[in-house]
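Form 7-S
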Amino acid sequence: MGPQRSLLGAYLSEEGEQGRVRKCKKAPTSWIKARDRYDWVTRAEAWDAEQQRVDREEWERRKSIQRQKEWEAAEKLAEKAQAMLTFPLAESHVDGPDGPIIIKPARWGMSDVARLLETASKLARLSAGMETDKTQVEVSADVRELSDEDLANIIRGRSGATEAS
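Output:
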């Protein structure tokens, strides 16, 4: 029934499964005695804690798999960008002994390499738990004279912080 379970809710659920519908405001005394004797509250709390632990472990496993995939993708992108840098941007050859020089441009440019390297770097940094962007904030006022609200806005990167006079 989850963390919101109650003794009355469990009793009514059991009654409903057995095909009996009852309108009660309180669980029967036998259920209250069994709850106390078998320490159902502590056992239910332990069950909830265990389920939360299992859920956390599963998400940590998923994060680890995703982090590894992103790292591998970042490495492949960086390798591709490096390979692109070793190839010429255009091929040229002479068509026949007296023919014209034919120049065949590549289907990519240096800006493509830059974008690949930037994406590879961001993926690698994300997978390693590092920052991907840096933000610089200039404050022209004496920080000691700023209100808490102004400081909070600066931290959040919002403009509108007033200058102290």
